[in-house]
From TrEMBL:
<dbReference type="InterPro" id="IPR006132">
    <property type="entry name" value="Asp/Orn_carbamoyltranf_P-bd"/>
</dbReference>
<dbReference type="GO" id="GO:0005739">
    <property type="term" value="C:mitochondrion"/>
</dbReference>
<keyword id="KW-1133">Transmembrane helix</keyword>
<dbReference type="InterPro" id="IPR002292">
    <property type="entry name" value="Orn/put_carbamltrans"/>
</dbReference>
<dbReference type="GO" id="GO:0019240">
    <property type="term" value="P:citrulline biosynthetic process"/>
</dbReference>
<dbReference type="Pfam" id="PF02729">
    <property type="entry name" value="OTCace_N"/>
</dbReference>
<dbReference type="GO" id="GO:0042450">
    <property type="term" value="P:L-arginine biosynthetic process via ornithine"/>
</dbReference>
<feature type="domain" description="Cupin type-1">
    <location>
        <begin position="56"/>
        <end position="205"/>
    </location>
</feature>
<keyword id="KW-0808">Transferase</keyword>
<dbReference type="InterPro" id="IPR036901">
    <property type="entry name" value="Asp/Orn_carbamoylTrfase_sf"/>
</dbReference>
<dbReference type="Pfam" id="PF00185">
    <property type="entry name" value="OTCace"/>
</dbReference>
<comment type="similarity">
    <text>Belongs to the germin family.</text>
</comment>
<feature type="region of interest" description="Disordered">
    <location>
        <begin position="259"/>
        <end position="294"/>
    </location>
</feature>
<keyword id="KW-0464">Manganese</keyword>
<dbReference type="GO" id="GO:0004585">
    <property type="term" value="F:ornithine carbamoyltransferase activity"/>
</dbReference>
<dbReference type="InterPro" id="IPR006130">
    <property type="entry name" value="Asp/Orn_carbamoylTrfase"/>
</dbReference>
<keyword id="KW-0732">Signal</keyword>
């Protein structure tokens, strides 16, 4: 019994350690992401080994290794190699077994440059949107190709020996969407069924269960020629990698230096230890790999230099990545030129996937079409591959006899059926591609859209930007010349300021913060554009999205900004609407953190070292149920604070149902107290907040509103008699009228109004940086 308890404790500790490592990595990634400069990131990565990624020993890193029956891919990206953050680079090493295929997929945020470093021949194929032709190449060792951003592409090892490729990306988080998995496993089955037409919902569900993990065994012809058992699993052991690389004469010379140095190497005992990542048994497939030159496998000199080979290969890929970026620029400019000549609005594939607009033509070529291979074979082979993998994985695994075309005669969907499925698959490719390109546009309508972690991250980033930027704004001196600059994430970018309502703080904050990030803010007032006069919101936002990289909109009804976001190809941030005012509340919360010492001691900050810890507060709202209050209701309770609201009893001043429903859905309602008694509302208040009683557009109601709000003016007398905390502080979003708060409070020591107004700049700057500059909140 004691042994059982000890074993249970040991297992629990192992799981806890693994969970702790994962949490530590997430925390590190989060800290590096919000760091404003490379200097800050260097301080966080205080161990030189943080800048080393071992592709042969990455199994312990969650998400680094993707395995399938045919091989595996090891990826160095932000979540597996945090040192990449802020550098715009990522890399993958692919280990393909005999006949293995890296099945059709998309990288929505980056172009890819791939080089074959070992193997016989690697067949690659790719196509883009708007009916672009299918491009196919068969690479030999030392040859490279590129896959444009957002294109559907694949790699197929055509040989009976293993192959190794290295791929570089021009984005630290390029993203990957597998076509088959995305269509059959992510979309609702009834949507998939309706798209294919010939398949029922249950058949779709059955297909989704049979889709193998990437990397899979590929085309039937190769599998037959190399005598591969589809039920087998190819594992890359250290010996297999060593043999695969040594069969390339150039790599042997690089690794060994010369023939004489190899012959003079020690001939001690063979190394048989496999790496953590690449250990495994090849009994199922080694029949397809030549057994010649066994003595080479045991050669110790190569083992001593295997890392030198990888370093040289990876360094070479980094060098050609620059060439890849040049190619990407050329392709982007040609695509835009061609699109303009056709009257279309084409995306520029150098930025985030939909950063420059949606494709105007819904017809896309797919690898399931009927264009010819270079050697005369049609894409029918590709059709049969996808069908055999997706539809008939089980039945194909039982098939031992193939006809002259390499097709299993027991397949449920025969070759003749493909003629009807092909157009359906073209449609599905378009759907999946567009889903990948449009599902991650980071709009912000309200703080209810953000998690607590995202709110804290934005606040922390705001504080960091403020700390770095303010010294840069001081008069120029030799001392300020050497200050670190703010990372220019908006360089060459323009943010459209779409204002249907005038503003002082919002406009100035937006324009000045965009400049600090290296961008430009283009102010567009009601009189400057055709919106609402001769042009719809949908048309306007698509035009703006083609010329600007973000939209900061201050509108009337909330439905106006929702329509903008629905059709926008670039991030849309709500600068103010009738229901919500998220940027104001971010500034309010940042202000409270900066003045946390005024509210008494608190524990360690739950947010970040950039933010002073803030104890749980009681925040009172007096006045109208405005957009400012609405974002308070969905944000402050989730951050650990209580909210007390005092409004007149008339229905017009109560919380709108959509807002209250969001608050309840987020669990905020239990920390909200509502009353029509202003004295009751301020009881125990640490902070008192109010807003204008008469918003723009309500001037006709002025007389009635002034009458209804009698007794709600914020004064020292009201808060003292109501029982507010003796050290209570005051906030107001401005502009202010004296009937809302008297001068004693507004200009007195309780007021945090002007620091609050300045913080509009830093929180808006953080949103511009994260949402428009990085597309990552």
């Amino acid at each position: 019994m004691k042994f059982a308890f000890v074993a249970l404790a040991l297992i629990s500790s192992l799981f806890s350690a693994a969970a702790s490592d994962t949490d530590d990595l997430k925390t590190l990634v989060s800290e590096l992401t919000v760091a404003a400069t490379q200097s800050e990131r260097l301080a966080i990565l205080d161990d030189d080994k943080d800048f080393v990624f071992d592709f042969l020993n990455a199994a312990q890193i969650k998400g680094a290794v993707g395995k399938g029956n045919g091989g595996q891919a090891v990826s160095a990206k932000t979540t597996t190699f945090p040192a990449l953050i802020g550098n715009g680079l990522a890399m993958t090493v692919g280990f393909l077994g005999p006949c293995a295929q890296n099945t059709p997929h998309i990288h929505p945020r980056s172009a890819e440059m791939l080089i074959l470093v070992a193997g016989d021949k690697l067949n690659t194929g790719t196509f883009q949107e708007n009916g672009a032709r299918f491009v196919e190449n068969k690479l030999e060792v030392g040859q490279a190709t590129i896959f444009p951003m957002g294109s559907i592409h694949f790699q197929q090892n055509l040989g009976c020996d293993p192959a190794i490729f290295v791929a570089g990306f021009a984005n630290e988080d390029p993203g990957t969407l597998q076509i088959a998995q995305g269509f059959f496993q992510q979309l609702p089955p009834d949507t998939t069924s309706a798209t294919l037409g010939e398949l029922g919902v249950e058949e779709v569900k059955d297909i989704s269960k049979q889709i193998p993990a990437n990397i899979a065994f590929g085309v039937a012809e190769c599998v037959k020629r190399c005598k591969i058992d589809r039920n087998s699993t190819f594992e890359f052991s250290e010996d297999v990698i060593k043999k695969t690389l040594k069969e390339q004469g150039i790599l042997v010379t690089i690794a060994s230096g010369s023939a004489s140095s190899r012959s003079g190497a020690s001939s001690g005992s063979n190394r048989t230890t496999s790496s953590n990542l690449l250990s495994g048994n090849n009994n199922n497939v080694n029949a397809g790999v030549s057994d010649s030159n066994k003595n080479d496998v045991d050669d110790q000199s190569f083992m001593k230099n295997k890392y030198h080979v990888l370093v040289i290969v990876l360094a070479s890929v980094c060098a050609v990545l620059v060439i890849a970026l040049i190619f990407a620029v050329v392709i982007a400019l040609r695509a835009r030129r061609d699109a303009r000549s056709r009257g279309l609005h084409a995306p520029l594939p150098l930025f985030s996937t939909t950063g420059h607009g949606k494709a105007a033509d819904s017809r896309s070529s797919t690898p399931f079409g009927t264009e010819k291979y270079a050697e005369g074979a049609t894409l029918q082979v590709e059709i049969e591959l996808c069908l055999s993998i997706i539809v008939n994985a089980k039945e194909t695994s039982r098939c031992r006899v193939f006809d002259t075309n390499g097709i299993c005669p027991h397949l449920k969907l025969r070759a003749e059926v493909t003629s009807t499925i092909t157009p359906k698959l073209e449609t599905l490719a378009t759907i999946v591609e567009r889903a990948a390109m449009t599902s991650k546009i980071p709009h912000l309508m309200t703080l209810a859209d953000l998690s607590v972690a995202q709110i804290n991250r934005t606040l922390s980033h705001s504080a960091a930007l403020k700390r770095i930027s303010k010294p840069l704004l001081q008069p120029y001196t030799p001392a300020t010349r050497s200050l670190p600059a703010v990372e220019q994430t908006l360089a060459n970018k323009t943010i459209a300021l779409l204002f249907s309502k005038r503003s002082t703080r919002t406009r100035v904050a937006a324009e000045t913060s965009a400049v600090l990030l290296g961008g430009r803010a283009l102010f567009l007032g009601r009189e400057d554009i055709q919106l609402g006069v001769n042009e719809s919101a949908r048309d306007t936002i698509n035009v703006l999205g083609g010329m600007c990289q973000g939209v900061f909109a201050r509108v009337g009804g909330h439905e106006e900004i929702e329509e903008l976001a629905e059709h926008s190809p670039v991030p849309v941030i709500n600068a103010l609407s009738s229901l919500w005012h998220p940027t104001q509340i971010l500034a309010d919360i940042l202000t409270l953190h900066e003045h946390a010492h005024l509210f008494g001691p608190a524990g360690r900050s739950a947010n970040d070292s950039n933010l002073p810890a803030l104890r749980p507060l009681t925040v009172t709202w007096l006045g109208d149920s405005s957009n400012v209050l609405h974002d308070i209701l969905v944000a402050l309770p989730r951050l650990g604070h209580k909210v007390r609201v005092g409004t007149p009893p008339q229905q017009a001043y109560q919380c709108p149902k959509p807002v209250w429903d969001r608050a309840k859905a987020l669990g905020c309602d239990k920390d909200i107290f509502w009353t029509d008694n202003p004295f009751e509302a301020v009881r125990g208040a640490d902070v008192v907040v109010t807003d204008t009683w008469i918003s723009m557009g309500q001037e006709a109601e002025k007389a009635q509103r002034l009458k209804d709000f009698q007794g709600y003016q914020v004064t020292e007398k009201l808060c003292k008699e109501g029982g507010a905390n003796p050290e209570w502080k005051f906030l107001h979003c401005l502009p202010r009228k004296s009937n809302e708060v008297d001068d004693e409070v507004f200009y007195g020591p309780r007021s945090l109004v002007f620091p609050e107004a300045e913080n509009r700049k830093w929180t808006i700057m953080a949103l511009f940086d994260l949402l428009v500059g990085r597309w990552n909140l």
